[in-house]
Amino acid sequence: MNRNTIAIKIKSIYRDLNDRQKKIADFIIENPDAVMHGTISTISDTLGIADSTFFRFIQKLGYAGIQEFKIALAKPGESNNNPSIYEHVQSSDDELTIARTVFDSNIKALQDTKDLLNADSFKKASKILNAAHSVYFFGISGSGVIAYDAYHKFLRAPIKSEFNFDYHIQLMMASKLTENDCAIIISHSGLTKETIQLAKIVKENGGKIIVITSYSLSELAKYADVCFISTSEEIQYRSEALSSRITQLSILDSLYVAYMFNNEEKANESLKKIRKAITNVKSKPDI
């Protein structure tokens, strides 16, 4: 954990903070040295808040206390750039410059998401998947494309996988989950009503839920047994929702690879069957 990670964490919760909490968040981002060298009392006095309010905000970021928070704040990290400042494509840029800007944006999003990865979350998610009889993927619109990619990937795994683009069918699928099943639900905003309804149904039926979102305090995240945060960089003509795809895919890739390694013998047998079926329909090159 370092200063850059703290800034990324703040970004992931900022939208859902109240005005007082946003005031604290802004102060930390704009005055990291003052926070690092101050006490809870001096910082709280400066902000005009109670000591307990500042302490609860630190806990919301995932830190046990002020000392742990200051240690992280003291580490500059690989990048000192404020994650709320993006490099925009300029009208004078040529095609190669535009391409490099897009690549840089994706690389930064991946690095920021990597910095937020939590060992406990991956262990818990792996435990859920390893124990599950089946895994269902849910997502609406653009998130549905990500869910479909994950479904396509997990078809190679020795676990029953389900997905459908039709929302009504997703609702029916969600109603059939049991405590022996896992739902992986994807939503950049975590506010999509349809996705939240799916999570409610899964939870009511006892299914385990892994959520992938960009907002850890979102309504959807509240239903998660495990929540992964996918950060993203917005550039001109490409919203955060679109650019979060690459980080969402990377989290899903990680879950897939971990599952395959945890179930290596069955995974190898499943891959053999898949490869044999696909090989039989591939055209052979002319000799």
UniProtKB/TrEMBL annotation:
Annotated keywords: DNA-binding, Isomerase, Transcription, Transcription regulation
CDD domains (UniProt xref): SIS_RpiR (cd05013)
Domain HTH rpiR-type: 4-80
Entry's Gene Ontology BP terms: carbohydrate derivative metabolic process
GO-annotated molecular function: carbohydrate derivative binding; DNA binding; DNA-binding transcription factor activity; isomerase activity
Keyword Cell membrane tagged: no
Keyword Membrane in annotation: no
Matching Pfam families: HTH_6 (PF01418), SIS (PF01380)
Boundaries of every SIS domain copy: 125-265
Protein name: Sugar isomerase (Sis)
